[in-house]
């Protein structure tokens, strides 16, 4: 540990360019890291909703190259994850497997030296490096901290086959999915189309925005011009990286549901969706989500993420709740303790 620590250095940047270089040349670092702290996601946020936010990107370098990083925004001496919890479901410190303690220790020291008095890190998963490594490290070093449960995200494992997914449901849920799928198909010609590149993106985004805000006042109020610009930028950014899956479900050639999903080659993330209430009797919103699950299975993904929120439909379709936490750390400790 001592030698590893001695060979570790941290750089701090107010730009994302250094992280893009790592993204291009050391993609293994990002395996399993939250979608919401990857360069294309951070770039979309920083160029729109976070345009007026000062970025502090802390990058940990070891003998073999970059070993981890933490994208922060600092205000009045308090460091939070860069991004907005309103549009980013959870965050984490990113670290190469086996280097989590070294990375967390280096980040804590760098934050203190940069004048950060406290860290307010949320939301984070129970398996995050923040919970599994930074919290125990801070306790061992004598930092004052608190860990508070704040929300849930919902996910489910996939076993590689559509029949396997159906078998994972209980009998009632399985019967419901099959019955509603059959009823939808009996209603007419059903088409499920997925857009993954910039080609055809704009008209499909128009359909998504229309269906997203059509039936719920809260979604209509959420989709302000700045948020819309953010989502448009995000879709273009993720499309360039091959991570976009914007889908439209049509019945008799008319769009009835749309979903904005993202794909990191391990999991498919259901980021947001909408549907036409005129077709509510056919459960087009629920069935479109089922189509995206089938899409994830066919892509060979091992996990499907419904993301934050405990809506009942997520559980009915096989999702399992995962708690999310808020970690507050005071960095006011004696000099040299790190």
Query: β content, as a range?
Result: 25-35%
Distance between the termini: 13 Å
Uncertain residue segments: 334-338
Q: Structural class, judged by helices and strands?
A: alpha+beta
CATH fold-level name of the largest domain? Aminopeptidase
Question: At the first level of CATH, what is the class of the largest domain?
Answer: Alpha Beta
Largest sheet: 13 strands, mixed
What is the helix fraction of residues, given as a range?
Answer: 25-40%
Radius of gyration: 21 Å
Which architecture of the largest domain would the CATH scheme give at its second level?
3-Layer(aba) Sandwich
Order of helices and strands: HEHHEEEEHEHEHHEHHHEEEHEHE
Averaging pLDDT over every residue, what do you get?
A: 93
**What is the total tally of β strands?**
13
């Amino acid at each position: 540990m001592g030698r590893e620590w001695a060979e570790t250095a941290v750089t701090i940047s107010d730009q994302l360019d250094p992280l893009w270089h790592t993204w291009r040349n050391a993609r293994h670092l990002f395996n399993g890291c939250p979608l919401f702290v990857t360069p294309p996601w951070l770039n979309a946020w920083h160029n729109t909703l976070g345009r007026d936010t000062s970025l502090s990107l802390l990058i940990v370098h070891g003998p073999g190259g970059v070993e981890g990083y933490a994208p922060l925004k600092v205000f009045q001496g308090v460091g939070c994850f860069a991004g907005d919890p309103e549009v980013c479901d959870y965050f984490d410190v990113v670290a190469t497997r086996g280097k989590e303690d070294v990375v967390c220790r280096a980040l804590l020291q760098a934050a203190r030296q940069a004048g950060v008095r406290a860290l307010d890190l949320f939301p984070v998963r129970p398996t995050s490096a923040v919970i599994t490594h930074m919290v125990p490290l801070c306790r061992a070093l004598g930092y004052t901290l608190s860990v508070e449960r704040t929300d849930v995200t919902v996910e489910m494992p996939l076993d590689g086959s559509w029949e396997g997914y159906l078998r994972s449901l209980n009998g009632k849920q399985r019967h419901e999915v099959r019955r509603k799928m059959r009823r939808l198909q009996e209603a007419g010609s059903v088409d499920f189309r997925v857009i993954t590149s910039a080609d055809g993106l704009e008209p499909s985004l128009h359909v998504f925005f229309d269906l997203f805000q059509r039936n719920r006042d809260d979604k209509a109020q959420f989709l302000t011009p700045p948020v819309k610009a953010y989502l448009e930028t995000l879709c273009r950014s993720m499309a360039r990286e091959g991570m976009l899956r914007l889908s439209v479900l049509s019945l008799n050639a008319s769009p009835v549901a749309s979903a904005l999903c993202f794909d990191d080659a391990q999991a498919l993330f259901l980021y947001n969706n909408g549907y036409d209430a005129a077709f509510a009797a056919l459960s087009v919103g629920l069935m479109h989500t089922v189509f995206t699950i089938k899409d994830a299975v066919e892509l060979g993904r091992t996990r499907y993420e419904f993301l934050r929120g405990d809506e009942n439909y997520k559980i009915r379709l096989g999702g399992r709740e995962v708690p999310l936490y808020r970690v507050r750390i005071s960095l006011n400790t004696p000099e040299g303790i790190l």
